[in-house]
Amino acid sequence: MKSAQLKKAKRAVRRAVLAGRDAIPPERRTAMGARVAERFLSLPEVEAAGTVMLFWAFGSEVPTGPMIARLHARGVDVALPRIEDGELVPIRYAPGDPTTEVYFGAREPAGGEALAPAAIDVVAVPGVAFDRRGRRVGYGGGYYDRFLAGLRGGPGAPPPFTASPAFTVQVVEEDLPAGAFDLPVDAIVTDEETIRPST
User: Fold this and answer.
1) pLDDT: which is higher, 116 or 166
2) Structural domain tally of the chain?
3) What is the CATH number of the domain that holds 72?
4) Which residue segment(s) compose the domain that 146 sits in?
5) What is the pLDDT of residues 15-44, one digit of tens each?
6) What residues pair up with 137 in beta bridges, in sequence order?
7) How far out from the chain centre does Cα 45 lie?
8) What distance in Å separates the CA atoms of residue 125 and residue 166, rounded to the nearest whole number?
9) Cα separation of 167 and 188, whole Å?
Protein backbone atom coordinates (compact mmCIF):
# COMPACT_ATOMS: atom_id res chain seq x y z
CA MET A 1 0.00 0.00 0.00
CA LYS A 2 1.40 3.38 -1.00
CA SER A 3 2.08 5.99 1.68
CA ALA A 4 -0.85 8.23 0.67
CA GLN A 5 -3.23 5.25 0.59
CA LEU A 6 -1.96 4.05 3.97
CA LYS A 7 -2.51 7.44 5.56
CA LYS A 8 -6.01 7.66 4.10
CA ALA A 9 -6.90 4.16 5.33
CA LYS A 10 -5.61 4.94 8.81
CA ARG A 11 -7.56 8.21 8.93
CA ALA A 12 -10.77 6.33 8.13
CA VAL A 13 -10.12 3.76 10.88
CA ARG A 14 -9.14 6.47 13.35
CA ARG A 15 -12.32 8.47 12.67
CA ALA A 16 -14.63 5.45 13.02
CA VAL A 17 -13.07 4.01 16.18
CA LEU A 18 -12.75 7.38 17.91
CA ALA A 19 -16.45 7.99 17.29
CA GLY A 20 -17.28 4.70 18.98
CA ARG A 21 -14.95 5.38 21.93
CA ASP A 22 -16.20 8.94 22.37
CA ALA A 23 -19.79 7.63 22.48
CA ILE A 24 -19.18 5.62 25.67
CA PRO A 25 -20.88 7.50 28.56
CA PRO A 26 -18.32 8.85 31.06
CA GLU A 27 -19.61 6.82 34.01
CA ARG A 28 -19.48 3.61 31.96
CA ARG A 29 -16.02 4.54 30.70
CA THR A 30 -14.84 4.88 34.31
CA ALA A 31 -16.18 1.44 35.25
CA MET A 32 -14.73 -0.17 32.13
CA GLY A 33 -11.43 1.61 32.74
CA ALA A 34 -11.26 0.08 36.23
CA ARG A 35 -11.54 -3.40 34.67
CA VAL A 36 -8.77 -2.55 32.19
CA ALA A 37 -6.58 -1.37 35.07
CA GLU A 38 -7.12 -4.62 37.00
CA ARG A 39 -6.16 -6.71 33.97
CA PHE A 40 -3.16 -4.55 33.15
CA LEU A 41 -1.81 -4.52 36.71
CA SER A 42 -2.21 -8.29 37.02
CA LEU A 43 -0.21 -9.09 33.89
CA PRO A 44 2.78 -11.24 34.97
CA GLU A 45 5.11 -8.91 33.10
CA VAL A 46 3.75 -5.89 34.98
CA GLU A 47 3.81 -7.66 38.34
CA ALA A 48 7.49 -8.51 37.78
CA ALA A 49 8.45 -5.06 36.47
CA GLY A 50 10.73 -2.64 38.25
CA THR A 51 10.01 0.23 35.86
CA VAL A 52 6.82 0.81 33.85
CA MET A 53 6.30 3.58 31.32
CA LEU A 54 2.68 4.71 31.20
CA PHE A 55 1.05 7.68 29.49
CA TRP A 56 -1.23 10.47 30.65
CA ALA A 57 -4.68 9.68 29.26
CA PHE A 58 -6.72 12.40 27.62
CA GLY A 59 -10.17 12.65 26.08
CA SER A 60 -12.00 9.33 26.00
CA GLU A 61 -8.90 7.14 26.51
CA VAL A 62 -8.74 4.47 29.20
CA PRO A 63 -7.95 6.41 32.41
CA THR A 64 -4.33 5.79 33.41
CA GLY A 65 -4.27 7.77 36.68
CA PRO A 66 -5.32 4.77 38.81
CA MET A 67 -2.61 2.59 37.22
CA ILE A 68 0.04 5.24 37.83
CA ALA A 69 -1.00 5.57 41.49
CA ARG A 70 -1.15 1.84 42.17
CA LEU A 71 2.17 1.08 40.51
CA HIS A 72 3.80 3.88 42.47
CA ALA A 73 2.27 2.47 45.68
CA ARG A 74 3.78 -0.92 44.83
CA GLY A 75 7.23 0.68 44.74
CA VAL A 76 7.50 0.47 40.96
CA ASP A 77 9.36 3.24 39.15
CA VAL A 78 6.85 4.97 36.86
CA ALA A 79 7.84 6.95 33.79
CA LEU A 80 5.70 9.22 31.63
CA PRO A 81 6.70 10.39 28.15
CA ARG A 82 7.80 13.91 27.41
CA ILE A 83 8.24 15.14 23.85
CA GLU A 84 11.67 16.69 23.34
CA ASP A 85 12.84 17.71 19.88
CA GLY A 86 10.09 15.61 18.33
CA GLU A 87 10.96 12.41 20.21
CA LEU A 88 9.60 10.67 23.32
CA VAL A 89 11.79 10.75 26.42
CA PRO A 90 10.82 8.63 29.47
CA ILE A 91 10.72 10.82 32.59
CA ARG A 92 10.45 9.46 36.14
CA TYR A 93 7.08 10.48 37.62
CA ALA A 94 5.33 10.23 40.98
CA PRO A 95 1.72 11.25 41.62
CA GLY A 96 1.64 14.94 42.45
CA ASP A 97 4.76 15.85 40.48
CA PRO A 98 4.22 18.99 38.36
CA THR A 99 3.03 18.51 34.79
CA THR A 100 2.35 20.73 31.81
CA GLU A 101 -0.43 20.34 29.25
CA VAL A 102 0.62 19.61 25.69
CA TYR A 103 -1.20 20.81 22.60
CA PHE A 104 -3.42 17.73 22.14
CA GLY A 105 -4.70 17.67 25.72
CA ALA A 106 -2.48 15.16 27.51
CA ARG A 107 -0.01 16.17 30.20
CA GLU A 108 3.72 15.49 30.54
CA PRO A 109 6.18 15.88 33.42
CA ALA A 110 7.34 19.47 33.83
CA GLY A 111 10.66 18.42 35.39
CA GLY A 112 11.99 15.10 36.53
CA GLU A 113 14.79 12.72 35.70
CA ALA A 114 15.09 11.12 32.29
CA LEU A 115 15.35 7.34 32.54
CA ALA A 116 17.61 5.18 30.44
CA PRO A 117 15.39 3.36 27.93
CA ALA A 118 17.14 0.08 28.78
CA ALA A 119 15.81 0.39 32.35
CA ILE A 120 12.18 0.14 31.24
CA ASP A 121 10.57 -3.28 31.66
CA VAL A 122 7.06 -2.53 30.38
CA VAL A 123 5.76 0.19 28.05
CA ALA A 124 2.04 0.96 27.97
CA VAL A 125 1.42 2.01 24.37
CA PRO A 126 -1.57 4.24 23.60
CA GLY A 127 -3.56 3.90 20.42
CA VAL A 128 -6.89 4.45 18.77
CA ALA A 129 -7.51 1.04 17.16
CA PHE A 130 -6.00 -2.42 17.49
CA ASP A 131 -6.37 -5.72 15.70
CA ARG A 132 -5.84 -9.24 16.99
CA ARG A 133 -2.38 -9.42 15.43
CA GLY A 134 -1.22 -6.65 17.75
CA ARG A 135 -1.19 -3.95 15.12
CA ARG A 136 -2.29 -0.48 16.16
CA VAL A 137 -3.40 2.77 14.61
CA GLY A 138 -2.29 5.66 16.79
CA TYR A 139 -2.92 9.36 16.55
CA GLY A 140 -0.70 9.88 13.53
CA GLY A 141 2.45 11.36 15.07
CA GLY A 142 4.59 8.22 14.91
CA TYR A 143 6.17 8.99 18.29
CA TYR A 144 5.73 5.53 19.78
CA ASP A 145 6.78 3.66 16.65
CA ARG A 146 10.06 5.61 16.63
CA PHE A 147 10.52 5.22 20.37
CA LEU A 148 9.86 1.47 20.35
CA ALA A 149 12.06 0.93 17.29
CA GLY A 150 14.90 2.53 19.21
CA LEU A 151 14.30 0.30 22.22
CA ARG A 152 14.12 -2.86 20.15
CA GLY A 153 17.27 -1.95 18.30
CA GLY A 154 19.37 -1.33 21.40
CA PRO A 155 22.23 -3.65 22.38
CA GLY A 156 22.27 -5.77 25.52
CA ALA A 157 18.96 -5.78 27.36
CA PRO A 158 15.95 -7.43 25.73
CA PRO A 159 13.21 -5.10 24.49
CA PRO A 160 10.54 -4.15 27.01
CA PHE A 161 7.16 -5.83 27.07
CA THR A 162 4.59 -3.66 25.30
CA ALA A 163 0.92 -3.62 26.28
CA SER A 164 -1.90 -1.35 25.16
CA PRO A 165 -4.79 -0.52 27.52
CA ALA A 166 -7.96 -0.15 25.44
CA PHE A 167 -11.71 -0.46 25.48
CA THR A 168 -13.30 -3.40 23.66
CA VAL A 169 -14.75 -1.02 21.05
CA GLN A 170 -11.17 -0.20 19.99
CA VAL A 171 -10.41 -3.78 18.88
CA VAL A 172 -11.34 -4.48 15.27
CA GLU A 173 -11.66 -7.96 13.83
CA GLU A 174 -10.18 -7.18 10.41
CA ASP A 175 -6.45 -6.55 9.92
CA LEU A 176 -5.55 -2.90 10.31
CA PRO A 177 -3.63 -1.04 7.60
CA ALA A 178 0.06 -1.04 8.50
CA GLY A 179 3.40 -0.07 7.02
CA ALA A 180 6.84 -1.57 7.58
CA PHE A 181 7.51 0.99 10.34
CA ASP A 182 4.36 0.08 12.33
CA LEU A 183 5.37 -2.14 15.25
CA PRO A 184 2.84 -4.53 16.84
CA VAL A 185 2.40 -4.67 20.61
CA ASP A 186 2.84 -7.78 22.74
CA ALA A 187 -0.58 -7.52 24.38
CA ILE A 188 -3.83 -5.56 24.19
CA VAL A 189 -5.63 -5.28 27.52
CA THR A 190 -9.34 -4.48 27.35
CA ASP A 191 -12.24 -4.42 29.77
CA GLU A 192 -13.23 -7.91 28.54
CA GLU A 193 -10.02 -9.76 27.62
CA THR A 194 -6.26 -9.77 27.26
CA ILE A 195 -5.13 -10.42 23.71
CA ARG A 196 -1.66 -11.87 23.22
CA PRO A 197 -1.09 -12.05 19.45
CA SER A 198 1.94 -14.33 19.67
CA THR A 199 0.10 -17.07 21.61
Assistant:
1) 166
2) 1
3) 3.40.50.10420
4) 3-195
5) 999 999 999 999 999 999 999 999 999 999
6) 129
7) 15
8) 10
9) 9
